[in-house]
Amino acid sequence: MSPKRLVLFDIDGTILWGGPLWKECFLGAMAHFFPDLEFPKVSFGGKTDIQIAREMMAAMGFNEAQVEDHMHRVVDLYVERACVAASTRSHEVSVLPGAKEIIEQLAVHPDVVLGLLTGNVRKGAHAKLSCAKLAHHFKLGVYGDDHWDRYRLPQLAVDLVQSELGLRFTGKQVVIIGDTIHDVNCGKAIGVRSIAVGTGRNVPTEELLKQNPDFYFRDLSNTFEVLQAILEEL
Ligand SMILES: [Mg+2]
Question: How many angstroms separate the alpha carbon of residue 178 from the centre of ligand 1?
Fold first, then answer.
């Protein structure tokens, strides 16, 4: 029997909190390229790394060509610095309630293909998950470097699984688990099942619920119920 669900996890605010080092390294990389400029406040939640760099540079007055020219260099330097910092600061990463347990169950569940759908670039994602000793569970995923627009990632994930595993998942067979309105909304165009989790920071529960996720959990600690939400027929 082939698997019935493709389950895609967001990372920050859903599986773990990475602590301050990631944002420090991101802002440090920006400061490396733009040493004399003040950075505008841009919300990081639910966005890809490259999108955050784009939005900051646009708010600083750079034109599209300048943004295109610099965004990958900023993100590459951020990841390089973050990976070095993570080797001595992995204790800053905290796994959110229930995340480890549900991931361990899903990783061996015969009905499930497990993956990531995250705005982190691939190397940054795996560095964070390695700090939490969870990286080995995620052999596939779509990342912020596959496309800077998170809303393009669900279709890319479906296509990736088809080309790598020969499995075609459609509609509610695809499950996206995340903590922001962008996690709930990014798969709507292809009719995915969304599971919103209330462990994000600065994400009001009412805002999240207003987006009509298929399921909402305060956190992932009730493994049985989360598993049921993933597997039940919709
Ligand atoms: Mg998140």
Answer: 6
